[in-house]
Amino acid sequence: MSENNKAILEAANAAIAEGNHEGFLSFCTDDTKWIFLGDKILNGKEAVRQWMATKYVEPPLNIVTNLIAEGDFVMALGDLTIKDKDGKGTDYSYCDIWRFRGGKMVELRAFVIKTEVKAETSSAV
């Protein structure tokens, strides 16, 4: 199941990279819950859809450095650049913990910090 969940997250991320919000949302449950620790909580697919429409004006650059899966959870570690409506990019580092139910993403706990410099990627910890 863990490897299947990783493949689902990779496919969902590929949809986002193509600017296909609905394709991404097809991998989420209707009652999906996104928790951005210290910031906001989005309840339900419609709330996520509205958030994506304002935050992902153009597809974000998402570099996943590690995907770790166990049971119903997949943890993604990486760096993200999101451009605003004026084309100005903002860089972030993140750790997303996704919980799956029935082959779909039901919950996200996102630890996201704005970075001034892009992090170096390394497979060594």
UniProtKB/TrEMBL annotation:
SUPFAM superfamilies: NTF2-like (SSF54427). Residues 10-107 form the SnoaL-like domain. It holds the Pfam family SnoaL_2. InterPro entries: NTF2-like_dom_sf (IPR032710), SnoaL-like (IPR037401). This is SnoaL-like domain-containing protein.
